[in-house]
Amino acid sequence: MSVETTLLFILAGVAVVVAIRWIADRTGLPAAALLTLIGILYAVLPGPNIELEPVVVLTLVLPPLLYNAALDSSLLDIRRNLRTVISLSVVLVVVTALLIGLGFSLWVAGATMAAGVALGAAVAPPDPVAALAVGKKVGLPHNIVTLIQGEGLLNDATALTLLTVAVNVASSGHFSFGHTVLEFFVSAGGGVIAGIVVAYANRASRPIQRDPLIANAISLSTPFLAYVIAEEVHVSGVLAVVVAGLIVGHDTPRLSSGASRLQVAAVWRLVDFLLEGLVFLLIGQQLPRVIDGLSEYKTSTIVIAVSITVGVVLLLRPLFLLVTQKLPASMHARLGGDPEENAIKRDRALNGREITALSWAGTRGVITLAAVFIIPAKTDDGANFPDLDLLLFCAFVVVLVTLVGQGLTFAPLVRMLGLRANKSDKARQRNEARSASVRAAMDRLEEIQQDEHDDADDQAIETMRKQLNHRLERYLRRIDLLDQSDSDEVPVSPQYEAALRVRRAVIDAQREELIRWRDAGTLDDEGLRVLERELDHEERLLPDRPRA
Length: 548
Prior knowledge:
The chain is an all-alpha fold. It has 22 helices and no strands. It holds the Pfam family Na_H_Exchanger.
């Protein structure tokens, strides 16, 4: 494929991603599922397809996607829910792989346990992109979102490590339990250490990251650095990326400048949007490649293999979550709550509605296909890898069933379950934090006033005090309004909404006047951009509201 053709493919892909995002925003349907269906539709039409190269996905696509997800996650929330996160991202992945391997060895003609485990490792890790996109839009409770995020961050490392072990066993024909367990823990532990090293190197470079451009360059390089370092020493690159992202994301509010945070966040949103969209579009285009190798298998063999794989993936997850609730209190999966809550409420077990939502959030995606495609075509002795084409097809069916089936039905399910985030509590927490920050600012003003200063300083201090008092009064009124409300939803204040409309109208008028000055030749473009950026930042501070 020529460079021009490749460029046209990329541009067409971006156009499709943008169009689907627009449709998804207006219909509430998950963009990931829609893009996969568009990819399948294109794949069955005449014309060239782009094959999903596993090495490219694992090296160039997966690190930035995982890193950005880790940056947006909460290290404290994951630590608070660590018991459940580890249960889902390690134990459930291993059990899924082993059960599929056992099923293949028992009921799929000619299949080996190792080949089945390799497939099981590939299909075990959920890719939570579609579920999270829908869950956040419909107001899924914060603790459930945290569990889905934490599981999605850590399960890839477990699955890819287990896949490597299973492929080595299938290729060599030798298996040692002790060596396998040791290899698994060395890979995982080494990945954690590599991630910590890269995160602390990033922390050491913070003094030079005050420049937003330098901060962007370092931020975009960090996931690749973590991945490459880990892979070079033969440990989990995926886990290194996740650990580095969690630590860097935790450090960012304290160690980064405001300008750097704004620009880095904007760049990562764009990278994440384009990469995720193009990857889901490519998933659908792999259909012809997957189907081509099935001619040598009996229909009954294909049906049995697919049934085992899909059945274990769909049924084991809810069963696992239910069973873990019956274990002793120190072992079972629980929801970590607000640190201010009492220990009983904080350590409560998952209820039926939460288990149902978590079960249906197990969508599979790019990790599954990238993983199954890295299984080698030949074993160590030069023979064909056992049932490789069948493994590819089973993995693809799992992706379609979960990504499209579960993805399209996740929002209606959450609404039917009545799982809703308590927006009133969240708004109260934020307004209380705002009030505390304003009081801290007023205390600092008092300290400044006690130092030596002139009349100009007095005027500046008094002006700032009036502004802070006005803010504090607004936040306290907001808290009173929230306390008086019995609803979980944030109450609407007519005065506050009117103030927002007026402020937006004023900003629009200022922006239009600046453009008129530029068009008349009174203000140059550089000046327009500087002044418009000031208004943009001011507008960005206002809460999102639909325009009339």
